[in-house]
Amino acid sequence: AALSRRYVLCEVVSEDPRCRQCIEDRAVGLAVRDAIGRVHGDYGLACCSISFTVKYLNAYTGTVLLRCRKDSYRLLCSALPFVRQLESRNQRYPCFLNTLHVGGTIRTCQKFLIQYNRRQLLMLLQNCTNEEERRCIQKSLLSCSLTEEQSQSGDEEDDDGIE
């Protein structure tokens, strides 16, 4: 395989409903790089920056998939709790990143996300008060998965058996 990579699946958690609007690749990437720089300094930032990218994100569900080199994923993961806000159009929105899963391929993260969404769906459905609310929740959760075209980019070949 080429370079070994790790994919870190996170969710953006925020009390501020407006935070969803600023969940975009650039804002998330900058917030993560900023946190890495604060926690690990220039050296850590340099290590993590090689091959670091926001691979996928769904602003509606707050799901973010980050990619980095295998040898720097621990640096990345240890800095994620220090992301405290996302910035967009000079507005700051307090939030934090909850790490859900670390995998060797996009596909393993996708499988995890499907299971995670199923569990979330069951919890949400149990708290529903009416049929309309229930339908809306089902529809929104069924629509969020990592799309097929994303897994065609050649990142699938580096599965190191992490499930």
Descriptors:
163 residues; alpha+beta; Alpha-Beta Plaits; 2 domains; two-stranded antiparallel sheet; 23% strand
Write the layout of secondary structure elements.
Elements: E1 5-13, H1 25-49, E2 53-58, E3 63-69, H2 73-79, E4 85-88, E5 91-94, E6 96-103, H3 106-126, H4 131-142
Antiparallel strand pairs: 1-3, 1-6, 2-3, 4-5
Q: Could you characterize the architecture of this molecule?
A:
By secondary structure, the chain is α+β, with helices and mostly antiparallel strands. The chain folds into 2 domains: 1-104, Ribonuclease P, Pop5 subunit (Alpha-Beta Plaits); 106-146. The protein is built from 4 helices and 6 strands. It has helices at residues 25-49, 73-79, 106-126, 131-142; strands at residues 5-13, 53-58, 63-69, 85-88, 91-94, 96-103. A 4-stranded antiparallel sheet has the order 2-3-1-6, with helices on both faces. Helix 3 packs antiparallel against helix 4 (131-142). It starts with a strand and ends in a 21-residue tail after the last helix. InterPro entries: Pop5/Rpp14/Rnp2-like, RNase_P/MRP_POP5, Rnp2-like_sf. Its main location: nucleus.
